[in-house]
Design goal:
Elements: H1 3-10, E1 13-23, H2 31-59, H3 66-77, E2 81-85, E3 88-94, H4 102-121, E4 126-137, E5 142-143, H5 145-153, E6 162-164, H6 166-178, H7 184-193, E7 194-200, E8 206-212, H8 214-224, H9 229-237, H10 247-260
Parallel strand pairs: 4-6
Antiparallel strand pairs: 1-3, 1-4, 2-3, 4-5, 7-8
Helix pairs in contact: 2-4, 4-8
Length: 268
């Protein structure tokens, strides 16, 4: 057996949640630009780790619900992996059960929402997509159906934000139909995490998909810190330029921000 064949048999097939984010406007055409981007990404990763640890402790560590305990145990024993290559960030979280990814979609989506918020704190604008399914991953290789699905969609929206791929969206729709069977806490988590939205796409059309309602999560964080989310958002934008031809991304994001922060409106 050749070395390549031996290695192929050592790679474990995985099932889990996969997210892919594109850092908008990052060129990395020079070493200085690459170093600046790397520094910002490290700050985002450090902030994301701190926020994630706190999130799981607060949201899942204080409940006696068996489902919440399982989610917390998975995070402690097998946390998500985050890789960066070029201007792309890859998020993978292997799940223990191929038949029931649904309980894990909410915390995974919240972690991706944190990436949007923390990225803005460091002048990085992310757009992306997430899904779930089979994939393979080791030190040098990431591939498989879930990777292909998310790679097809992570650059298609015209804003900074994160969508569920069409494949994943149909299962979130199923969760939406079944959420009355959830306990009250999980149902509240679902309503705060996802929104069914006419997502602006790069071809100037919209596509009805589930998106991550990251402003709601950011609003929760800054409510604790007594900071108004809308004020925070415009303060972050002051440090950014809007090159001609990119203004639609900012306008689309602003519209989404205002929509998600209207607590009386949930698109169905």
């Amino acid at each position: 057996m050749t070395k390549s064949n031996k290695r192929r048999f050592r790679i474990k097939k995985k099932f889990g949640i996969v997210g892919m984010l594109d850092a908008l406007g990052v060129k990395n055409r020079s070493i200085d630009e690459a170093l600046e981007f790397t520094g910002k990404i490290r700050l985002v990763q450090e902030g994301l780790q701190t926020m994630t640890d706190s999130y799981f402790k607060v949201m899942y560590g204080k409940s006696s619900e068996p489902q919440f305990t399982e989610i917390l145990d998975l995070y402690k024993n097998s946390p998500p992996h985050i890789l960066t290559f070029g201007d792309t960030v890859l998020f993978t979280w292997e799940l223990p059960d191929t038949n029931s990814p649904y309980p894990y979609l909410i915390p995974a989506a919240d972690l991706l929402s944190f990436a949007i918020c923390i990225g803005l704190d460091h002048e990085l604008l992310f757009r992306g997509a997430f899904t779930f399914g089979e994939y393979i991953q080791d030190e040098t290789v990431v591939a498989g159906p879930a990777i292909a699905d998310v790679a097809s969609w992570y650059e298609e929206s015209d804003w900074f934000g994160i969508i569920a791929t069409p494949y994943c969206s149909q299962f979130i729709s199923y969760m939406d139909q079944q959420k009355n069977k959830f306990n009250e806490t999980l149902r509240d988590f679902f309503n705060e995490t996802f929104i069914y939205y006419d997502v602006p796409m790069k071809d100037a059309h919209t596509k009805k998909l589930w998106a991550l309602a990251w402003p709601r999560l950011n609003s929760y964080i800054h409510t604790i810190e007594s900071i108004n989310t809308i004020d925070w958002y415009y303060n972050q934008l002051q440090a950014l330029q809007i090159p001609k031809g990119t203004e639609a991304k900012y306008m689309n994001t602003e519209k989404f921000l205002m929509k998600t922060l209207d607590k009386d409106v949930y698109l169905k």
